[in-house]
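Please, structure for the following, as tokens.
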Amino acid sequence: MKSLLICPSHRTAVSLLAETQPLAAVPLLGQGVVEYWLTHLACSGGKEVWILADDRPEQIQALVGNGARWGLKIHLIEESRELTAAQALLKYEKEFGLGAPTDVTAVLDHLPGFPDTPLFESYSGWFSALQTWMPRAKTPDRVGVLETELGVWVGLHCHVSPDATLRAPCWLGKNVYIGVGATIGPGAVIEDGAFIESGSVITNSLVGPDTFVGQFSEIENSLAWGDTLVNLQSSSITRVPDRFVLCFLRNPRTAPTASWLDRVSELCSRNKAEAHLLWKHFLMNKEG
């Protein structure tokens, strides 16, 4: 089985998500949509995949590599613009030998098996798609994601205070910190590396990767992404100036392979308060 995957370009309705990475790589419960599709294709008997990308193709290439992780042979092709599925087939069908009944051609604007649940038409639609996908996000190739109780998923190296409350459905990514007395859920997604301080309440909301949420903060029906808060119902966007309330724990443009000590050093040169918060997170991960 051969497949042709088309990475989405810029989408004005969810521009915040693509500030530092292409939409196909934005974390959705810890993985990009392109990763979920590759897992799906590998489980369906796929052998060879061509990926068309016009938005930061080098980041897509770094994420998928040569496909060995999935047992696939992957080729990345840089395009000048996003093609429709029909345009891509017209351009590449003969060259790649596509056309068999089992071959797949898809624009990565939805998760596998959910073509009627678009990801990038609005923030509310994106969050709704994540809620639908949550029970399926623990794909066969993912290690360390545990369903600790019905509807509660916890990733590797998480620290959850014994006095915190997790209410299903909710998802905690890897290296997440949940402080004393915090309440997470229902309907909460906490992406990898997020730090939720004591007494905070997160309901029907998503906290983005490496995002700090300060003590006693209440986030409801919102997307907290670094220092930005998006109302999921109105799509209104607010920048939060107080870094003790909401901020990135690291510069989002920093390479994701940077160590915790590298991140602390970076923050020390910029903001001592942020460095103190990140140092606490580093110590927690070291002890874990």
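The longest strand covers residues 48-53. Residues 254-274 have pLDDT under 50 and may be disordered.
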